[in-house]
Specification:
alpha/beta, 7 strands, globular, disordered N terminus, disordered C terminus
Length: about 220
Amino acid sequence: MYRRANLSRTITLVVALFLTAAATSAFAREFRAADTQNEEYPTVQALLYMGSLVAERTGGRHQIKVFHSRQLGEEKETLEQTRVGAIDLNRTNVALIGTMVPAMNVLAMPFLFRSIEHMQKVLDGPIGNEILDSFEPYGFVGLAFYDSGARSIYNSVRPVTSMADLKGLRIRVQQSEQMSAMIRSLGADPVAPALRVTDTRPLLGVQFENEAAPGLPTGR
């Protein structure tokens, strides 16, 4: 996981850990990083940039190999691999990690923050640190947060300007009971297929709508 913060600050922390490893071991290591998005996606580009810094600052001794585009499986699968040590670094979604680390479910709730500034203050402060610290009993180390903007609902049926507009819509959600319960409480019907399956549904003539964030991380 990543903590949403100044990217250089996050990378400095990670590289410092790798430099410590380099100083205490004569062996090189290739660290495996997973991201389900494609190579051009901002979070994948951030992992690639981090890898270049690690290689540069360890004299090439340590490398980060980035597996993007679901090369190591869907997010649920890569989270399990991360927990057992098969993957070293994983950028994943709040809703999915919340199925394993309960405190993360708080951040998946709707209408939680008053503004972007409010969100940044919470995640960069004691509350964010407390949430990240809660990862360890579940076999993870919470490193950082990314934010990619407010989640929204979009569809090809009608504009959504009130809860009444959601009635009867089939909304694709992440594989999370909390997300499904939220959509049901708003009056719509949740559908939670794996993303890879979702991509093929239009070809099969199955139509459903979506809720998601814009997909561009923000930061200070």
